[in-house]
Amino acid sequence: MNETSSYLQTVGRALEILELIGRFPGLTLSELARRTGMNTTVIYRLLFTLSTVGFLQQEPGGKRYYLGDKTLLLGVQSLDNREIKRIAQYYMWDHYERTGDTCILTVPCAGQSICIEKIGSLRDSSSAVRAGGVYPLHKGASNRVLLAFLPAGEQQRYLDKLGMDPDSRQRLQAELDAIVVRGYDFSVGLLTPDRFGLGFPIFDRSGRLAGGFSTGGYIAGLTEQDRQELILRFQAVAAQINLAMGSPSTLNE
Q1: Would the pLDDT of 142 be above 80?
Q2: Fewest 10 Å CB contacts: which of 55, 75, 135, 215?
Q3: Tell me: the pLDDT tens digits for 97-134?
Q4: DSSP character for 2?
């Protein structure tokens, strides 16, 4: 039996609708038909089924559809069950309690970056990254460090989708290559003006990228000595997390 004969078209169509509504909340039946090319009768039955079981919800008295509670629950469970979160939390809390540094954990997911944990003061507004936030991989050190260490094929497919002009792409590629050589990324103003980001990669036991450990803050008042001390502090914690993950060391000493 080949892969084509194993594919269930109805399931595939349902998942396509979920993905579209996740990206474009509030789509109507007619808008979904236009985007997918599916028959409106088929889409109606899929929408009815997905809404009945809780994966979609329709606005009261309206025609627009949104992701339902069961979709949210699955996403939360998926993120909570990631090994990197279970392992990194201990080291992140320990570091925050000793230093007060905001600690951020991001993971690559479907061509984007998701912040799955952020530890810091509730009043701290020095980081633009929030828990549960979804970000482009090429913006900010918390995310760009993921792009730099993605497998080459995945990285190039992401860059292709950006549609950059050749010069801009070449500059970004050179920056990504430099991040790999350094073992970390330090950026200023890429995600939010006047703020810096510092990110280190985390790998699993097979040496594959699992996520990024990072921090951020206002660049004003950050001296070169402060920057170097911050890099050393986070480099040490990243090394601890990598060791606990059972990953080969790829961080610069």
Answers
A1: yes
A2: 75
A3: 999 999 999 999 889 999 999 998 655 555 578 888 88
A4: -
